[in-house]
Each structure stands twice: as C-alpha cells, then as structure tokens.
Amino acid sequence: MRKLKVVHIIDDLGRGGAETLLVDILPDLNHRYDLTLVTLNDRNDFPEEVFRQIKKIDLQYKGYADLFAVTRRLKKIIKAERPDLVRSQLFWSTIIARLACGKRNPLVFSVHEIMNRDPIGRHKQLIQDLIERATYRKTQNMIGVTNAVIQNFKSIHPHTGKCFLLSNFVRNEFFKTKYEFSFQANRPLKIVCVGNLRLIKNIPFLIETIKLLPRNLISLDIYGEGPLRPTLEKEIEGADLFNVRLMGRKADIYRVLPDYDLYVSPSNAEGFGIAVAEALSVGLPVIISDIPGHKEIGDKYANYFDLNNTASLIRFIEYFIANPEKFKMQSEQNKVYALKAFRRDNYLNKLDSIYQETAGRI
Q1: Number of separate domains in the chain
Q2: Per-residue pLDDT reduced to its tens digit, 290-327
Q3: Are residues 59 and 193 in the same domain?
Q4: 181/330 same-domain check
Q5: Are residues 93 and 202 in the same domain?
Q6: For a Cys-Cys bond, which of 10, 15, 144, 158 suits 89, CB 3.0-4.6 Å?
Q7: pLDDT tens digits for range 70-109
Q8: How does pLDDT run across 191-203, given as a tens digit for each residue?
Q9: Do residues 197 and 311 both lie within one domain?
C-alpha cells in the first residue's frame, strides 16, 4: 500500500517539549509516511545524525516582516511535494501553514497550550489573537493534546471544524527508569519541579510556599530555564533559602527524577503537562495545581491543591511527611497507570488514524 505523503512543519528544533517528542518519533514517522520535515529556521539542539535519513528543509524565516515571503516559500514546497496532507505544530508554523495550504491541501495542526493564558505583552497578544482568528477555517483539522485545550480552542472559534484528541506520549526512557519510593520522616523531604521559568509556570508561588515550611525538613530543586531566573535567584538569595536550588535545563531529566521523593507543579495553566506525565511514569508521587489540564493528566492518581492558597499545598506536604506509606502505594500505582495512559505506540496508532481520516479531505 502506498505511504501517505506528509509535509510536517514546526518552528524549529530547539529542545522544547513538542520538539523533543517529534524528534523521538521521527524514525517511526519516516517509516510509516513519505515525510518531508520543514522548519521555520535552522535552530537545532539535537545531534545531526538524528536527521540523516530525513528530508529536511529550512525556510529561513526572519520574523513578522518575512511572513508572506516565507508563506510563498512553503507554497512552493507543497506544490513540489504534492502531499496527501500538511501537518503543523506550534503557533507560527500553523499560521504559515494555514496561509500556504489555502483550500486545496488538507491541513492538520496541533494546539499544545491553553490559548490566551500566557502573560505576554498586551499588544503582542492582540496581534496573535487577530492572526489566529483571521487564518483559521473550518476545513482545517485541529489536534488538541487534552479536552481542556480543545474546549478552549472552541471557545475562541465558535464555528469549529473537525477536532481530534491526541494526548502526548512519554518517552520510553522514563518507563525504563528504576525508582523505589524510600522516603522516611527521619530525613529531609526532597521535592522536584520541572518547568520553564516563566510566569505561567507559577514558580514564585512554590517558593513562597517553601518559605513557610521548616527549611531543615525540605529541599526543592527546580529544573528549567527562562526569563524569570534573575528574579527567582534574587528572591532565593534574599530569603536565605539555602534549601532551594535552580538547576538549569537538563535534557535527560529521567536520570535525576529517581533522586527525589515528590514532584510538585504549581502551574497556572497547562496544555498537556508533559513533565507531570513523566514524573508519573517514573513512579514519583505528584502534588499539582487543580487546573483542568493537570486533572486530565493526573486523573485519580495525582494530589491536587488549591492554586490560590499556599496553605492548601502546605497541608499536602505536611501530610506527605507524616504518612509516607500512603504515598508509597501511590508511587506503585502511578507507574502502572502511566504505562497505560502515555504509551508511544498508542500515540502513533491514534495519529495514523487521524491522518487516514483527514488525508485528501476538504
């Protein structure tokens, strides 16, 4: 049977969540489909050998002023490749793909985040909202990583076309990681948080909570980078929080997660929350904010605190310290649940069914 021909466009190959998951399944995609990978620019944080068997094209996008020129370049690629469908990931790739595809080429685009929740500049948000509304058509096919993302998208576009739920998968390295819950109340509790240092991740809330707890009983390591680092460093130093460390970005985070007792996420909004899914897959107990995206990922296996109340998180942490046996049971259940919920092969099979349904459909 002839392989579907797919042109897949993404902003770049920096080591973000969407990019990392894409690179992880590139060999599978290249095996299943006649694949052409298109990036807006040449940024690449992955080894070049990963792409040795992949047809890869860089559009050399330079920003707003280059929008229509880069759209023309993508149109030429689509015309030359004659794909069965075009797939896009991330905001600007989707906008450019929408403009380039027009009505002739089926487009499947992914939405990974709750829209309009990232606290960026007001003028920038207005521009992006306008472009989003102006370029969307009902003939386009939307993939949402959670039901919360899909419902948010429909609230912005009341007349919505076909939408598909496709939850992200967790890389196999996390399932293979050995973890044995071993916390006892006679030693400090080791907490870990993974996320970009941006306002939407709400790290200041977590630091404010840690201030209110005995510093000799708890440590917190935060993995990630972002614009809030200088502010957080100043806050940690000013409050003499010797038990809080900013650890920077770590590509192989699965190697260090077993060093901790508890995963905490205070995010204000999440599309999928891949870091939470990864923590569950290792077997860590998790305490996370009670937002819709988290509740879809954690289901009944996570513990949820009130995002507007530091006392709610403090109560959970104190309960954890006093009742480690209950969280040991959670740890064992989490890995079993995650293996069913976030398997790579389930993701690939569902993606294929979406492609088969949408290819050639206008």
Answers
A1: 2
A2: 999 999 999 999 999 999 899 999 999 999 999 999 99
A3: no
A4: yes
A5: no
A6: 10
A7: 999 999 999 999 999 999 999 999 999 999 997 889 999 9
A8: 999 999 999 999 9
A9: yes
Q: Are residues 202 and 351 in the same domain?
A: no
The CATH number that applies at residue 105 is 3.40.50.2000
Residues 320 and 181 in one domain: yes
pLDDT digits (tens, 9 = 90+) for 1-27: 789 999 999 999 998 888 989 999 999
pTM of the model: 0.90
